[in-house]
């Protein structure tokens, strides 16, 4: 065995909506790459977050929560989640202390058939009522469902168990040359993070169907020495939604814009000039053409 052997691989994070997959990826990578909110279906894409050291490269993928699709956008989201079963070297299946383990047996059966290491992460143990005994029951239940998986209780939010998980991943990682340049942190361009940060504010500030009817497109991203100038468009499905996004006298949109600008300034570490427009793209989330245009179809 070569003395200077290098390890690298794809570590894909899957699970049901809202269990903490994106929170976990951000903790593992040490950067806020993937937006995470209290609402289910926050993540819509497969997003890579890369950890580099001289001896190894871990390519994490965050994916959308697995769901039964009701419209074309959700079909694309599910395709991203399923693609993560195809190319993983190690799979992280995330659940939490409250979800019913039998919730999504179709997907679990696919996970069970995989012949790569599967780490089953029971997240949110900070919220566990019933202490050790209850945790024991949960672990036992999962062990029956996925007998080949290693089960680790964690709290992604409090970073409990995350360092141990990272060490276990390093042990399991195959020997391989790096897949990406060693200074690369993600596979997505700057514009992607702009649209995600704006969408995060929409998830936080609007109710019901609104966040799920919205897509954000960045039409201009111009960086000079001191500033970044950004023009973005929030697309909604119907005229009535446009009114809700803008709000009375534009107050709601102003709040989104201000909060997004503050987060973008943190992310890019530069002053930002942000202009946001709202447009209607009728039924975009059911249109194959529009979904292609918005980058929802996996390569
Ligand atoms: N109490 C607690 N909450 C957590 C923990 N990890 C994540 N959360 C919260 O759970 C919610 C969902 O987190 P996300 O990371 O967005 O979950 P996700 O699995 O990526 O969700 P989708 O992208 O919608 O599938 C957020 O409100 C998080 O703050 C944890 O360890 N403990
Ligand atoms: Mg997510």
UniProtKB/TrEMBL annotation:
What the entry lists under Pfam families is as follows: KH_2, MMR_HSR1
Q: Origin, by domain of life? A: Bacteria
Instruction: List the residue ranges of the region (G4).
Output: 123-126
| Major subcellular site | cytoplasm
Q: Where does it reside? A: Cytoplasm; Cell membrane
Which UniProt key words apply to this protein? Cell membrane, Cytoplasm, GTP-binding, Membrane, Nucleotide-binding, Ribosome biogenesis, RNA-binding, rRNA-binding
List all membrane-crossing ranges. Answer: none
Report the family membership: Belongs to the TRAFAC class TrmE-Era-EngA-EngB-Septin-like GTPase superfamily. Era GTPase family.
- Protein's name according to its UniProt entry: GTPase Era
| Lineage of source species | Bacteria, Pseudomonadati, Bacteroidota, Bacteroidia, Bacteroidales
């Amino acid at each position: 065995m070569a003395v200077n052997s290098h390890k690298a691989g794809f570590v894909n994070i899957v699970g049901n909506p809202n269990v903490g997959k994106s929170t976990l990826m951000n903790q593992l990578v040490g950067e806020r790459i993937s937006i995470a909110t209290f609402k289910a279906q926050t993540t819509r894409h497969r997003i890579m977050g890369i950890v580099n050291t001289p001896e190894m490269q871990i390519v994490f993928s965050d994916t959308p929560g697995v769901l039964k699709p009701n419209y074309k956008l959700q079909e694309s989201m599910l395709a991203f989640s399923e693609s993560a079963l195809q190319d993983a070297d190690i799979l992280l299946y995330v659940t939490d202390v409250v979800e019913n383990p039998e919730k999504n047996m179709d997907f679990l059966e696919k996970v069970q058939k995989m012949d790569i290491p599967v780490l089953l992460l029971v997240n949110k143990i900070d919220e566990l009522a019933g202490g050790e005994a209850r945790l024991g029951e949960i672990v036992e239940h999962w062990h029956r469902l996925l007998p080949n998986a290693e089960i680790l209780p964690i709290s992604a939010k409090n970073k409990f168990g995350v360092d141990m998980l990272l060490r276990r991943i390093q042990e399991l990682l195959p020997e391989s040359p790096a897949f990406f340049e060693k200074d690369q942190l993600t596979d997505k361009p700057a514009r992607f993070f702009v649209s995600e940060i704006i969408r995060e504010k929409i998830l936080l500030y609007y109710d019901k169907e609104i966040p799920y009817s919205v897509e954000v497109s960045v039409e201009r991203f111009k960086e000079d020495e001191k500033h970044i100038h950004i023009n973005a468009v929030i697309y909604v499905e119907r005229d009535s939604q446009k009114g809700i996004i803008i709000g009375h006298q534009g107050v709601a949109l102003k709040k989104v814009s201000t909060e997004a600008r503050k987060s973008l300034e943190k992310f890019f570490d530069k002053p930002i000039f942000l202009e946001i427009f709202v447009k209607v793209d009728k039924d975009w989330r059911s249109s194959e053409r529009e979904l292609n245009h918005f980058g929802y179809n996996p390569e």
